[in-house]
Every structure is written in structure tokens, then in C-alpha cells.
Amino acid sequence: MVRLFLCAVCWLCAVSTSAAQTATASVPAGPPGAATSPAAHFNWAGALKQSGFLLVVQHSLRMAQQKTRIHLDGPFWSDYVYSVEGLSGWNDGNPVITNYGGHPLMGAITGYIQIQNDPRGIALTWDPDNPAYWKSRLKGLGWAAAYSTTYELAPWGEAGIGNVGYDRGTMGYVDLVITPLAGFGLVLLEDYLDAKLIARLEGGKVTTRVRILRVILNPSRSVANLLRLKRPSHRDTR
């Protein structure tokens, strides 16, 4: 029953995200430079809703796996605590592509969720000589670390819904470390490619070819855009 309640909460979060983002999209944009005004505050509501939307998508995909469904029965809290206690060692039994490909992608997506809701970071592009750029991206790293930790260990995460860790050897530290840190590196790489390659190839014109190029070379940013109900190829800076 508790698992069903948590799933319902996640779905409601996704629905509210869709409604809220649609409403926001209908509001005319402010004057240029307004998004970076020092008086503007971090959009907590947008960041939390977009993160909740991502959580719903991830759990929905997990429900297609038998190893998740077989652990949906049983006493919730005792199973949850036993699952968290199963955190041990580095590896978790998942394929290399999952741990070192899929999880860094998740870390980068959640990093961009923070960046696109931060008025001081949303308009910043690759600029390693700018302290503000690093401050912004490190905040994204923090958001990714918080999301990945709760996704692994919180009652609404894998340990609670599907009881990852209940079967010993299925929960390790690899995801807690690789997801945010490799995701941070992926954010930097996508920023670099966007500024140094994509923007130059565009030549100031946004064509279908350009949109496809943006999505292919910036996959994490593209997914983060979808979570706020914008085109995958959307750019806040041009």
C-alpha cells in the first residue's frame, strides 16, 4: 500500500509539472537580461517538479523489469530498511553501460535541471576563466548528487520502490559516486561542444539540421529541456 501511495505521489508530481510548465510557457518572456537579474531567485518549484517528472519516468521504466515487480509485495518499511542495509562494496551487478553510461547521463540531466532553474547560471556558456561559470556548474553537481542519493536510498527511490539492495550485491557505491561526478564531467563536455562546435556550425541560423545536431551532441541538456516542456534543441542563450 505504501509503495502504491509513493507511486501515486510521483505521478501527481508529473501531472502538476506538465500543467505548471504549460502555464509558464504561455507567459511572455521578459526583456533581455531579466533572467540573470541579481534580484531573481532560484526556481525551486520548477526544479523540484522537473526532478519529480524525471523520477516518474525512471520508475515507470523500472516497472517493466521483473526484478523490480517481484519486490513490490511485503511489508514496506522493514523491506526498505533491509534494502538500504544492503549497500555494500563498489559494484551493484549492473552492466558496465548502465553504471558508466546511463548513470552519468542521469547526473548530467539533473545537473542541467538545476542550471536551467538558476537565474545566475541559465545564461552562462562554456567559460573556464569565469568563476561564475564554475560556481553555477558546481551547484548543478550538488543538485545531481542530492537527486542520485535520494534516487538510490530514499523511500521513494529504488530502495523503497522495488527494494534494490534487498538481494545482496544489487546495491553498491558505484552509482552514488559515478552519477554526480561523471555527470558533472558530461555537463562540462556538452557546454564545451555547444559553445565551440555547435554554435559555430549554426552560423546564426536555426535549421532542422542544427536542431538535430544540438540533440545529438547535447543529449543531457535535451532531456532536461523536455522535462520543462521545451524543444529538446532549445537554447536559452540564442
Question: Helices, strands, pairings?
Answer:
Layout: H1 2-25, H2 44-62, H3 66-69, H4 76-84, H5 96-116, H6 131-153, H7 174-202, H8 208-217, H9 219-227
Helix pairs in contact: 1-2, 5-6, 5-7, 5-9, 6-7, 7-8
- SSE-based structural type: mainly alpha
Which stretches of 5+ consecutive residues score pLDDT under 50?
1-39
Estimated share of beta-strand residues: under 5%
Number of strands: 0
Please bin the fraction of helical residues. Answer: 55-70%
Question: Would you mind describing this structure in some detail?
Answer:
The protein has helices at 2-25, 44-62, 66-69, 76-84, 96-116, 131-153, 174-202, 208-217, 219-227. The chain is elongated. It has 9 helices and no strands. 62% of the residues lie in helices and 0% in strands. Helix 5 crosses helix 9 (219-227). With 238 residues, it is mainly α. It has one domain.
